[in-house]
Amino acid sequence: MILSSHRRSISRGGAMDLIFGNVVPLVLGSLGVMVLYQLLQRYRQRAYIQDAVVVITGASSGLGKECARVFHAAGARLILCGRDRARLQELVQELKEVADSKQKTYTPSTVIFDLSDTETVASAAEEILKCHGHVDILINNAGVSYRGTILNTHVDVHKEVMGINYFGPVALTQAILPSMVQRRKGHVAVISSVQGKIAIPFRSAYAASKHATQAYFDCLRAEVEQYGLEVSVISPGYIRTNLSLNAVTGDGSKYGVLDKNTAEGRDPREVAEAVLRAVGRRKKDVLLAGPLPTLAVYIRTLCPQLFFKLMASRARKEQRPKED
To answer: Residue 221 — left, alpha, or beta (φ > 0 → left; ψ -120 to 50 → alpha)?
Structure first.
């Protein structure tokens, strides 16, 4: 009996030796590889952004403004675009006053134009290219949201939303693209939305514009890979900005309401840092949404009938557009 107990003790001791002798070093080694990989990713990200000429549209407010701050801090040579000259100049002054002894930064340039006026985009692109002679990274961020029922929305509102969210970025991208192809170097990013992947009630014009954006830039990615160009589609969920306040309604007037989901959305600084990582690490398609919107994307793909029932139920509950 004593011998049997002694053997079991040896057996347990051997098992423990096996665990500490083999499993623990394997776990520690794996953690070391992961840490090394993350450090390498951060180094590549810094090297990719530092000194790069980065164009940001819609830079005077919201996510665009936060992107300007994080890309400036990362050492990019910024070209900030928007319609409001005064607000862009305020941002430039703010960034000029930011000092970082560890990171070389540059005073941003500005180009003022209305992205919805596609007639002026070509001349704006020429002005952008004159700033530094080329563009390394183009971030199409400017956009407008929408709230309305399809029955009560004029077709001109659909055209307006599509013009800003789709035709504007397309026009600017195609104006900048030839210079990138010629250099065989460049990166085009677009801030889309989770609504570019799923459509929810009372967002028809917005969701349609973002679905079109997703499709166009997916096609672009495939076509320009042969030239060594990168294309990123970044799709955030709700962000705590004034997007819903400035949204257009079915008759073209402003919505003027900060809806609950928008007010409780992600901090724009946090999203801007995620955009920086996505661009710096050359991600092709990034979904920046919470668990429920992410789940909805998968349900729409794998079980569309269930998704349609859920959206119909949501439409009945809301009755009218009141929350994003």
So the answer is: alpha
Write the DSSP symbol of residue 201: T
Count of beta carbons in the 10 Å neighbourhood of residue 119: 8
Specify the DSSP class assigned to residue 22: I
Query: Whole-angstrom Cα distance, residue 165 to residue 176?
Result: 17
Is the Cα dihedral 254, 259, 265, 270 positive or negative?
A: positive
pLDDT tens figures, 248-258: 999 999 898 88
Which one from 48, 146, 166, 206 is the annotated catalytic residue?
206
**pLDDT tens readout for residues 304-324:** 999 999 999 999 998 754 444
End-to-end Cα spacing for the chain:
73
Among 237, 201, 147, residue whose Cα is nearest residue 311: 201
What is the homologous superfamily of the domain 50-318 according to CATH?
Answer: NAD(P)-binding Rossmann-like Domain (3.40.50.720)
Active site residue 206: yes
Domain ranges across the chain: 50-318
